[in-house]
Amino acid sequence: MYTVSVSNALWESVWNGSVRSWYSQDIPKELDPVESGSYLTAYSWIENDALRTRVYYQKQDEYIQEAASDNGKGWGKAVEPKQGFPQARSGTGLAIVPFPNTNDREAKLFYLNIRGKLMSFDHKRNATSGGSWQNQDRWFSPSISGNRHSISNFPQTATVNHGSIPGGTHLTAILNTSGDMTLRIYFIRDGNLVEIRWNEKGGWQSWYMHDAAALGVAAVSNSNDVNIFFQTKTECLSAMGLNRLANK
User: Fold this and answer.
1) End-to-end Cα distance, the chain
2) Which end of the chain has less Cβ packing within 10 Å, N or C?
3) Structural domain tally of the chain?
């Protein structure tokens, strides 16, 4: 679990199953300072029997930064993309979701640009460097390997016309890889829970799902079920669920 301390430093909290307790440690200060109140998002994977973890945050200059840890050998600043990580709206939400195209390590990092537009910064594999980040505004026609899906005409940065999203808005994203393969992004705006979703058949769509009393939102996907957690009333946790087989 990753948090920002009161001194604007990254912290890692780890569950030790052997002694059944948590311990915390700071992530080295040689990383660029974290913007006060920055949102965080993280993901990890196994590659060549090594655990690799990446944490994304907003720096004090409003650019996004990646912290990297490989196989428990400590933390450091990841090698920046050639074009650099993007500048984002102050207080941008951050959400990373695996999006396998030609390789399982490919992913999409969603954020708000300086105008409040929902964008994706995409990590794609290549033969020379192993992977690269890119912020594209064109369309691509990949095939989803191993899932019997052929994805065409996916706009990497354009979504529906949702207007400008204010800074401080939390983002969460999930990808269903079964059935029709649907990408879903959730956030709270103007007191409403919003879903933006994409699949090949329907393209981009959005709708207001429910009234909401706070900005926090989280979503999890398990096979054909999607569950979204948020607050409909102050101090009350609520949940909405979708069973994709029953379509309700």
Assistant:
1) 32
2) C
3) 1
**Could you tell me if 122 and 108 are in contact, meaning their C-beta atoms sit under 8 angstroms apart?**
yes
pTM, two decimals, is: 0.82
CA atoms of 33 and 58, how far apart (whole Å): 9
Whether residue 65 lies inside any domain: the answer is: no
Report pLDDT digits (tens) over 16-41.
888 889 988 888 767 888 998 899 99
3-state secondary structure of 105: coil
Query: Which two structure tokens, joined as six digits, stand for 110?
Result: 């969603």
For residue 106, the tally of other CB atoms under 10 A from its CB is 17
CB 176 within 8 A of CB 147: no
Tell me, yes or no, whether 11 lies in a domain. Answer: no
Domain that holds residue 119: 81-243
193 lies in some domain: yes
Tell me if 230 sits within 8 A of 215, measured CB to CB: no
Q: What is the CATH number of the domain that holds 121?
A: 2.120.10.70
